[in-house]
Amino acid sequence: MDNSKYTKATWLIMERLLESETLDDSLAGALEIIVAELDSEAGAIWLLDQKSGRLAPVFHIGPADISNLSIENGIGTEGSVAKNGKPVMISNTASDSGYEGTVFDDAGLKTKSLICVPLKNVKESIGCFIIVNKNDGRHYNEEELLLCEHMAALAGMTIAEKGFFIEFEENKEVLASLKNVTKQFRTGDNVNVVLKGINLDIYKNEFVVVLGESGCGKTTMMNIIGCMDSLTSGTLTIEGKDYSHPTDKDLTDFRRDYVGFIFQQYNLMPNLTALENVRFIAELCKNPMPAEEALAKVNLSDRAGNYPGQLSGGQQQRVSIARAIVKRPSLILADEPTAALDYATSIEVLQVIEDIVKTKGTTVLMVTHNAEIAKMADRVVKLRNGKISSIKRNLEPLHAKELVW
Considering only CA atoms, which of 163, 133, 195, 168 is closest in space to residue 47? Predict the structure, then answer.
């Protein structure tokens, strides 16, 4: 690494740490810079929960989902570095007799080389960050280790300045799981590979926001989870049941009783009132809530007798949300639900979705281009070119009413 690149990277890290409003954004931004500058395959920031004595990842980059993994302080490479406060650089894990393994190995990403550096506040070590595997196969060097140590020192200062308290919820129950999922579309002799090996667990009672540029595979991934599209290879399990190649009956039962959908287009039946639109869906399900109750939960009881053409865009979207929750789904999939709405109306809709997660115990997976909405999620998943590029856990999710764009 040349000195000019080293200096530029240090300044970029400093700016990101100081300019970001929240601790998780600060640390995530710094790791993004390190992984990019050192051309690494993956990386993660781990923080220590003092109460449990375990480390959990706040933010990680790369194809392996390690969101729900935690390790005892002192165990493995990450735990050892966090506990003893000493950095580790391994050029070749295969020939290093002292290599203790990383969590990435457990998640299916073989660690070939690594740098792992402790994160410290004024008094003690409170975690670590790790980067693994240069994309070009080269080994890390001393200058790159020094850059990582500089980042760790700056991150420690930021943690002390912004305040640090973290308590992780352990052993979350997996609702849906994608393992090495690919999706190809064939047009004549041409094959378009949209998903290139997705690994992602979605947990019960969480709000997940999926971000990414147009064409990166966000909606395709959501459609596969909702069984509206089929995967090409890999596995999809939902509450332990394999939906990789479901029967027609499995598809019908799943879509009817298990999952609710909210789309950018409201898709309401124009000749039915708001209540009748909700009741129509309720009559198809096994154990629905009363349609009137679903409409009340989106604050539209007073518009029950209105037809879609007599409702504003935000009101129509709330009817579509009522239609999704009336079946008491375990999972709600939302595709750009605020894209056609103005700011004030978007916040109203997001408040309804927030309430669903908090009071109904429902998991919501939302695809959006609006990065501001990600601030209210429990986790933020970013896709790039058909792969998961990063996953961030929000330490302090915002309320919908606190969002600004």
Answer: 168
Decide: residue 293, CB within 10 A, 0-12 exposed, 13-18 middle, 19+ buried. Answer: middle
Question: 125-152, pLDDT tens digit by residue?
Answer: 889 999 999 999 999 999 999 999 988 8
Closest CA to 298 of 325, 277, 272, 279: 325
Residue 384's beta-bridge partner residues? 387
- Report yes or no: 274 and 305 within 8 Å, Cβ to Cβ: yes
Pair of tokens at residue 397: 């999710």
In this predicted model, what pLDDT tens digit does every residue of 72-91 receive, in sequence order? 999 999 999 999 999 999 99
Torsional sign, CA 20, 23, 29, 33: positive
Helix, coil or strand: residue 221: helix
Confirm if 362 and 173 have CB atoms less than 8 A apart. no
Q: Is the pLDDT of residue 15 over 90?
A: no
Contact 118, 16 (CB under 8 A): no
Give the rounded distance of the alpha carbon of 279 from its chain centre: 33
Q: Are 221 and 197 in contact, with CB atoms under 8 Å apart? A: no
Q: Is the pLDDT of residue 2 over 60?
A: no
Grouping H, G, I as helix, E, B as strand and the rest as coil, residue 284 is coil
In 3D space, the residue among 64, 75, 70 whose CA is nearest the CA of residue 107 turns out to be 64
Q: Are 217 and 240 in contact (CB under 8 A)?
A: no
DSSP code at position 44: E
What are the backbone angles phi and psi of residue 343, rounded to the nearest 5°?
-60, -50
Cα(367)–Cα(383) distance, integer angstroms: 11
HSE value, Cβ hemisphere, 13 Å, CA-based, for 26:
24
Collapsing DSSP to helix, strand or coil, 53 comes out as: coil
CB 230 within 8 A of CB 178: no
Report d(CA 349, CA 342) in Å as an integer.
11
CB 381 within 8 A of CB 55: no
| C-alpha torsion sign, points 181, 27, 149, 126 | negative
Token pair listed for 52: 């449990």
Rounded to 5 degrees, φ, ψ at 156 are -60, -40
Please determine, for residue 1, whether its predicted confidence score (pLDDT) is greater than 60: no
Domains recognised in the chain with CATH numbers: 3-162 (3.30.450.40), 174-402 (3.40.50.300)
Burial group, residue 313, by CB count within 10 angstroms (0-12, 13-18, 19+): middle
